[in-house]
Amino acid sequence: DALPICKGVTVHHEASLFDLQAFENDDGTKGVQYMIQNNKTKAVETYSVDKALISIGRVPNYKGLGLENTKCKVTDGRMRVDGFQRCAPHTHIYAVGDATVDIALVNMAETEGKLAIDHIYSAKQEQPPVIDNLSTIMFLDEEVAAVGLNEQQCRQQQISYLMARYGYEFVSRAVAMGDTKGFIKIIVTNDREKRVLGVRAIGPHASSVVELASLAIHNKASAYELAELMTAYPAITQGFQECLRMLL
Question: What's the predicted TM-score (pTM) here?
Fold first, then answer.
């Protein structure tokens, strides 16, 4: 999906590039025209922009592992694993991290590795754990961070929710830093419990802000429980506390 972010930049996720051509207009202005297909909807879209950056990512290198001697399955360049990181259909071969290319982040690889080791040496779990509080961070000119559900996902899952948005212009630390561009957004269930569903933040120290809600989302904690948190002052996290109070 196309994701508009700071300063007119658009990121296309889950898309395949069909064509890309540079052009120059009669007035001398230059740009790039490209055509992509949305891998989910299969819709073909054409864009004309000033500049385009292609991020092709990485794929695992399975050569020399002897996978041809096993029944391990690789689909679309990815090793197929179950919820305990076992390579289907085997129950004694595990793969974690970049080998599975689920989410290519160090903290995710560590979590998968711990899960695999626990499953090998501990009492066998019947149900795999649910990882629903993995934070996403983009270190751009304005830091962007997220954890949990966003509003679109809530609507798709038919979850009734409440949302509060608190601007950095009201956060003392941001004012002192001279950088008030940004905001904090908190989403909770629209009921008496007000369970925390997700947090979005854009601006300085955004990653520190969303981490305040990570454990609460995993534990299905309510906004009332999270409101007991006492943040430092002056700190950007004060904005999280104030945003939360708007929902109570």
Answer: 0.73
